[in-house]
């Protein structure tokens, strides 16, 4: 009896994980593309994870220093407006109000004793040896599905919003 319960529980976990993966895949395939300007990026090599770029979005500069200082550490969400050039810009901190069709939620993290926040995801991982292609990145490229706040960072883009494809 105990093993049957364990098997049922395992099957439920696998179904949920597959649904999450399916939803993310659908967002990457069918989603609306938009760009967030990068303030800076730094290539790093992490022994276990591989090569990555730390991303600091320019949108972080749109808040007052006092607001950063007064915020509690932890996670939250901000509302980004996607304009006609498909660029995102800060609108407000999420307060539960409904979003318009061209607004999207992005998660942030504020670390304790820091006077700024990180928009998430704050890293982009890539294949070893491809750093030379990504150092020129000026935008994070995201996809989202209408009516769904599921976001995927699908790549990085240069100053002309051309998605960087290694080897090209």
Strand-helix topology:
Layout: H1 2-30, E1 32-46, E2 50-57, H2 65-70, E3 74-82, E4 88-93, E5 103-110, E6 118-119, E7 123-126, H3 131-134, E8 139-144, E9 151-157
Antiparallel strand pairs: 1-2, 1-8, 2-7, 3-4, 3-5, 5-6, 8-9
Q: What does the model show?
A:
The chain is globular, with a radius of gyration of 18 Å. The model has no long low-confidence stretch (mean pLDDT 80). It contains 3 helices and 9 strands. The strands form 2 sheets. The chain has a 5-stranded antiparallel β-sheet. The protein has a 4-stranded antiparallel β-sheet with strand order 4-3-5-6, with no helix packed on it. It is 23% helix and 39% strand. It has 168 residues and is an alpha+beta fold.
In brief, what are we looking at here?
The protein is α+β, with helices and mostly antiparallel strands and 168 residues long. The protein has 3 helices and 9 strands; from the N terminus they run H-E-E-H-E-E-E-E-E-H-E-E.
List the main descriptive attributes of the protein structure presented here.
168 residues; alpha+beta; 2 domains; 3 helices; 23% helix; globular
- The structural class is alpha+beta
Q: Give the overall average pLDDT.
A: 80
Give the tally of β-strands. 9
Element pattern in H and E: HEEHEEEEEHEE
The radius of gyration computed from the alpha-carbon positions, rounded to a whole number of angstroms, is 18 Å
Low-confidence stretches: none
Distance between the termini: 57 Å
How many domains make up the coordinates? Answer: 2
Strand portion: 35-45%
């Amino acid at each position: 009896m105990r093993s049957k319960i364990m098997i049922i529980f395992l099957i439920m976990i696998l179904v949920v994980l597959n649904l999450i993966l399916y939803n993310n895949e659908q967002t990457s395939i069918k989603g609306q593309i938009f760009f967030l300007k990068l303030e800076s990026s730094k290539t790093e090599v992490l022994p276990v994870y591989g090569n990555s770029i730390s991303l600091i979005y320019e949108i972080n500069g749109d808040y007052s220093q006092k607001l950063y200082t007064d915020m509690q550490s932890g996670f939250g969400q901000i509302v980004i407006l996607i304009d006609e050039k498909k660029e995102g810009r800060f609108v407000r901190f999420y307060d539960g109000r409904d979003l318009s069709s061209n607004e999207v939620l992005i998660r942030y993290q504020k670390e304790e004793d820091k006077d700024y926040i990180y928009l998430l995801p704050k890293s982009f991982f890539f294949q070893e040896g491809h750093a030379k292609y990504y150092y020129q990145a000026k935008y994070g490229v995201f996809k989202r599905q209408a009516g769904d706040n599921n976001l995927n960072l699908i790549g990085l883009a240069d100053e002309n919003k051309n998605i960087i494809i290694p080897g090209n």
